[in-house]
Amino acid sequence: MKTQSNDNSSSTAINDKIAQVVSAYIVSVQVKMATAIAGRFNAYSAPKQKLVLLSIVAITIAILLAGLFTNSYTIPALHQSYKPATHIGMASDVNLSGRRDAQLTDSLTKK
Question: Transmembrane segments in this chain: where (predicted)?
Answer without folding.
Answer: 18-39, 51-69
